[in-house]
Amino acid sequence: MTFHIRMAKADDALNLAALSTQVWLHTYAKAGLRNTLSRYVFAAFTEKKLAAEIANGAKQLLVCEVDACLVGYVKIAYRAICPVRRLESVEIETLYVQEHFSGHGVGSALLQAAMDHSRAKGWNEVFLMVNLENHRARTFYETRAFERIGTVDFALEDERHANAVLIKYL
Ligand SMILES: CC(C)(COP(=O)(O)OP(=O)(O)OC[C@H]1O[C@@H](n2cnc3c(N)ncnc32)[C@H](O)[C@@H]1OP(=O)(O)O)[C@@H](O)C(=O)NCCC(=O)NCCS
Fold it and tell me: What pTM does this model have?
């Protein structure tokens, strides 16, 4: 499969919002939909929010296309505070690949591109948070030498979901 990674542009925001919604629900709404989950995706993944993030110099979004169609993206947040070590670092905030394109190297290539961009900006580590129940993603990061340094809760209204905090030295 031939894919192409490039920096996100303003007019990617609509497709990024749709892809985020699709991937998030596929990953986390495994027992079906309920209001908490639906409210979250419609609030979190809007075209407006994603357009603002693309325009925000503190973040960097890289998209992956196949035949000029969006299939995945990675979002990097520079100067993010690692919740375990309480230090400024680089967070891989989001890494989403559309299910139809998984297992073809897209996630690996996006992750590598995010690490390359971080290193080029002078950072020597990246961190990220992954839901403890998300076994596929946890294995994906473990295979790529990310180390677990702690656990934090992700709040979804009155629910708490444990996330592993992982770090990788570049
Ligand atoms: C986790 C996720 C990002 C992985 O993306 P992906 O595109 O499937 O990842 P890759 O294809 O690069 O790698 C996955 C597997 O595909 C296979 N693979 C990798 N490159 C390949 C290639 N060029 N050709 C064929 N297969 C390949 C490998 O078996 C790899 O397994 P490995 O970890 O043992 O190396 C993706 O499944 C996803 O978006 N999941 C839902 C959202 C999510 O959980 N995101 C992370 C939350 S923090």
Answer: 0.96
103 lines ligand 1 (CB under 6 A): yes
Q: Check if the beta carbon of residue 98 is closer than 8 Å to that of residue 82.
A: no
CB 72 within 8 A of CB 1: no
**SS3 for 152?**
strand
- 166 pocket-lining for ligand 1 (C-beta < 6 Å): no
Ligand 1 contact via 167 beta carbon (within 6 Å): no
pLDDT digits over 59-118, tens only? 999 999 999 999 999 999 999 999 999 999 999 999 999 999 999 999 999 999 999 999
Q: Give nearest CA residue, ligand 1 atom 36.
A: 97
CATH code at 4-169: 3.40.630.30
Is pLDDT above 90 for 57?
no
How close are the terminal C-alpha atoms of the chain, in Å? 28
Domain ranges, ordered by start, for the chain: 4-169
What is the Å distance from ligand 1's center to 158 Cα?
A: 31
